[in-house]
Amino acid sequence: MADTIVENRADEVPFSYVIAELLTSNLQQKPNKMKTFQNMYGVVGLNLPDIEAAITLIFAGGRVRIDPGIVGKPDLTIISSSEKIISLNAINIKFGLPYYFDEAGMNVLKQLASGELKIKGMFFHPILLTRLTKIMSVM
Amino acid sequence: MAKIKALTQEWLDAYKAAIVADPEYKQIAKDWEGSVSLICNADPGKGIPEPIYMFQDYWHGDVGEFVVCDKAKADSAKFVMTGDYSRWKQVALKELDATKALLQGKLKMKGDLPYVVRNIKTVNKVIDILGAFETQWPDDPE
Question: What is the count of structural domains for chain A?
Fold first, then answer.
C-alpha cells in the first residue's frame, strides 16, 4: 500500500504531513504515477522560508523518506513561499511530461522568471524534476 | 448595517447569501462536489465555551444546507477543517492565508487533499467571501 512507502520522520514540521498526504493520495488514486515513483532515486529539498519550514524528500526506488530540514546537499532544492508552493501541484501532465503551456504551467514559469520560485539543480537533474512533478501533480 | 455575530446560524446564513450573490462564484465552483465542515475549537477566554460545528453543502456552483450542527453531522462532511478560534478569525479578516495556515498546521483538514488542490480556486473564493460582510467577533468590543 502507498501509505507504507512514505515514511515521514519530520513530525515537527506540519508541512510534511501535507506533502505526505498529497503523495500518498496521488499514488493511491492514480496508479500510473506509481511506476514513475518506483523509478525515482534522488534527494529533493523543499524550503518555505516565509513559514520557516523545510523538509527533505529522499527517494529510493518506490520508497520515500521525509526528513526535517534540508539534509546534506539535495539534488534539487525548491524554494518558494507557502502560498505559491501549492501551484506546483496543479501542473498538468500531457504525454507523460509536465505541460507548461496552459494557465497552471505559465503561472509556474512566471514564478520562476520572477524569482518567486527557485529550483536549484533543475538543469543538472531534469529527469528527477520531471518525475517529481509527475508524482506530485494532482491533475 | 448591523454586524452579525460570528459563528452563529445568522452568520452562516449571511455567508451563504454572500456566496450566492457573488458574481464569480457559480462559474469558479462549477466542478466542486461535496460538503465542507468548519470546526472552531473551544476557547473560553475568547467567548467560545464549546467547539462550534458548521456544516456547509456545495454542489457544482450551487449552495445547499448551511447550518450550525453537532459533531456527528460535522464529521460526516466530505471535507472537515478544524482550527482555533483565533485562526479562523485571522483567516476571515485576511490576516492569515488559509493555505499558509494549513501548511503551518494552524488549520487542519480531513478529506481528499488532491481534490482540494485541484479545486483551489473554489476554496480560495469561498474563503475570500468569508470576510466580505460585517462580523461581530466574540472577543471584539461591542
Answer: 1
Task: Tell me, yes or no, whether B69 lies in a domain.
Answer: yes
Which position has the grid cell 454586524? B3
By C-alpha distance, the chain A residue nearest B104 is A14
Average pLDDT, chain A: 92
B113/A53 touch (CB, cutoff 8 Å), yes or no: no
pLDDT at A12 over 70: yes
Contact A48/B at CB under 8 A: yes
- Residue closest to A65 by CA, chosen among A55, A73, A75, A74: A55
For A25, the 3-state DSSP assignment is helix
Task: Tell me the whole-structure pTM to 2 decimals.
Answer: 0.88
B94/A contact by beta carbon, under 8 A: no
Q: Chain A contacts of B114, Cβ < 8 Å?
A: 22, 25-26, 29, 89, 138
Is B142 a member of any domain? no
Q: Which CATH number fits the domain that encloses residue A11?
A: 3.30.1050.10
Query: pLDDT at position B142, please?
Result: 73
Cβ contacts of residue A95 below 8 Å, gap of 6+?
A: none
Q: Where are the alpha helices (DSSP H) in chain A?
A: 14-29, 32-38, 82-85, 103-114, 126-136
Question: What residues in A contact B112, CB-CB < 8 Å?
Answer: 25
Distance CA(A85)–CA(A78), nearest Å, equals 9
Q: How crowded is residue A4: how many other Cβ atoms within 10 Å of its Cβ?
A: 8
Structural domain harbouring B59? 4-130
Domain-embedded: residue B137: no
In a domain, B46, yes or no: yes
Mean pLDDT of B2-7: 91
